[in-house]
Specification:
single chain, alpha/beta, five-stranded mixed beta sheet, three-stranded antiparallel beta sheet, 14 helices, 10 strands, about 10% strand, globular
Length: about 300
Amino acid sequence: MNWIVLKALNELYHKGEVKKNETLFKSGEVSFLTNSLNIISDDGRKLVASDSYREVYDKKYLEKFNLYAGFLSDSGLLKPQSRFEENDIEILMKIKSWREEGTLEELRAQIISSDESLRGVSLMFFKNDKYLDDKPSLVDALKKIIDVAQFSNEKDQQYIYRLEVDNPRMIVLCENVDFLTKPNKPRLHGIELWYAGGKNVDKLRYANHRALPIFYSCDWDYDGLYIIYPLVKEKIPAIELLTPDGPRKGITETEHRSLWRQSETSRQEALHSILRQNQLGIINELIRDNQWIIEESNSLVTMLEIA
């Protein structure tokens, strides 16, 4: 659901009707409210709210709309042409909270000093290196929230981002950037964190882990385990996969895109040869139940204690 639909549903709530446009015509949310719940009628030109619409809107949409509208307004992003997806708004809100907490500053400084590419930043925050392509409004919003003047046009992210500590005891390479925005606990326990950019692991062949124990933290899904981890292990043979302790989430209910699938024999053998039996057991259970484990839902310290 995008901001255009959210605004229209809010107008419907306050005015009882809203003029229909192409976005509303294509909206799955509007279709659900119209055809499944039957709380909106559609005469082809406009949508009209039924008496029960307000009750549903109060429960499902009002708080969310006010939260997003407040954020967009406070951030100077509330414009008539704004078409942000709901997930985009939530990510921008998360980045802004990191900025306000002061935990984004080191990462921001590294983004600037390394002249990070747009696709590198896209992968860092949106988990898809092409997501920001042809989304100028979202790119401008991201620049504003992070407070950077520009992202370079180079396609590949070339730098390893590090959360450094005074006396590191170990290194954890993270698939996603989230742990690097929470510096207090890793520094307290002497854990140096690295972020290389998901699948963008070629640069790791030049990485020096200074003979420190090094571990890999990732989403426990098909991409994280069957694709990325074997590539990482190939570049850094000493690295070991951390066993997750986070909750398991349904792939369907979270609309996750990395789906379990039948892997090629060579890829399957490459992964299974570098995992422990208990880790293989967890993967089999996740595949059986169509679930995954989100990297940042784990406790970094607990995973290292049981490594």
